[in-house]
Design brief:
globular, mainly alpha
Length: 273
């Protein structure tokens, strides 16, 4: 790869995107894919990658970075006790199978319909979270962790296909079904790892024999771009986790609701534009 100002611009964009994704991952339990896919698309366009390959390469690379980001975020939340071990145990198999399935499908299927369903669902959930609830934030009933764990298998399929860590769906799902907000954020970080790893493997397999991939590609994963992003996400995810514990539950819900609403609008806008 020859030196050029486009290369410098690409590296700076990836470092900045990685910084933001790391903080958001730690603070809100998301993997950062929602933030990372747009700049990755821009960078691959600068690299003159084929337009046909850019979406798959951006999503696959995003999932690869979430592996490191989610581990860093989960470790920080575990130290602070914001973790539901029983729910995580029930989530391992459904989430891993769903994400692996979604990663393999993404190589040949359009995610347009799934993206539209996710967009509308995210609007409903985000509005619910942004509007202050009259009820107390304390959970006064025992959540069905077995059911929640199995539902993460469905979110795993969608998340892997669109290159996100699943927090945008799993955090509100867990919270609405009785998991305390800080525990939902912390547990979602670990679930993000279980989505990203098999999902990324699926993208490697589905892009393995493609002859038009750019250099530094491993299937549909650009490992050099992933490395630039991970340098920042791993460092800054613990900072985001620390920030999350300085906010009360209601404020955290509202922040996540605003974030999810923006994500939903961006998803729907891209489908209709």
């Amino acid at each position: 790869m020859e030196f050029s100002w486009e290369l410098v611009e690409s590296i700076l964009i990836l470092l900045l995107a990685g910084s933001l994704a790391g903080i958001m991952a730690g603070m809100l339990g998301i993997g950062g894919g929602i933030i990372l896919v747009p700049p990755l698309v821009f960078v691959f366009d600068l690299m003159q990658v084929s337009e046909v390959l850019i979406p798959h390469l951006a999503i696959g690379t995003s999932l690869a970075t979430i592996i490191a980001t989610s581990l860093s975020s989960a470790k920080a939340h575990l130290k602070r006790g914001s973790f539901d071990q029983q729910l995580l145990k029930y989530s391992i198999i459904p989430t891993s199978l769903g994400a692996g399935f979604g990663g393999l499908l993404a190589g040949s299927l359009s995610g347009g319909v799934l993206a539209m369903i996710f967009g509308f669902m995210a609007v409903v959930v985000s509005v619910r979270m942004m509007i202050p609830s009259k009820a107390t934030d304390e959970i006064d009933y025992e959540p069905n962790r077995y059911l929640i764990g199995n539902l993460t298998g469905l979110t795993g399929i969608i998340s892997a296909m669109v290159g996100i860590g699943g927090g945008a769906m799993n955090v509100p799902l867990m919270n609405m079904m009785g998991i305390k907000m800080h525990h939902a954020v912390g547990t979602s970080a670990s679930v993000g790892f279980m989505i990203a790893l098999p999902g990324a493997i699926g993208f490697v397999v589905s892009g393995w024999d493609n002859p038009n991939l750019p250099e530094f590609s491993f299937g549909f994963i650009h490992w050099l771009a992933a490395l630039c992003i991970c340098l920042m996400t791993v460092i800054l995810a613990p900072l985001g986790a620390a920030i999350s514990h300085q906010l009360n539950t209601k404020k955290l819900k509202q922040i996540f609701g605003i974030f999810l609403f923006v994500v939903a609008l961006r998803t729907l806008w891209r489908l209709w534009s």
